[in-house]
Amino acid sequence: MYPLHKQTVEPVFGIPKSVIGFRQFSLWSLDKVKGERTLVCLAWNLKRMTSLRLQTEN
Questions:
Q1: Which of 22, 30, 26, 27 minimizes the C-alpha distance to 47?
Q2: Out of 9, 22, 26, 27, which could bridge 16 as a Cys pair, Cβ 3.0 to 4.6 Å?
Q3: What are 1-58's pLDDT values in tens digits?
Q4: For the chain, which residues make up each domain, given as ranges?
Q5: Other Cβ atoms closer than 10 A to 22
Q6: What is the C-alpha R_g of the chain?
Q7: How far apart are the C-alpha atoms of 56 and 18, rounded to whole Å?
């Protein structure tokens, strides 16, 4: 069970830490943290989409 947990959950937290450099939230309250997390995920998705688009064009 633990290897499956690492496989499915860890990239969600590891990618923003290693690729974007996001290490901690800078806002307080659950609503603000949710908004900040949404922005981090949006930034990662845009970065990934750009990368994939450049690969398909070449």
A1: 22
A2: 22
A3: 666 555 555 666 677 777 777 778 888 899 998 998 898 889 888 988 998 888 887 6
A4: 2-57
A5: 19
A6: 14
A7: 24
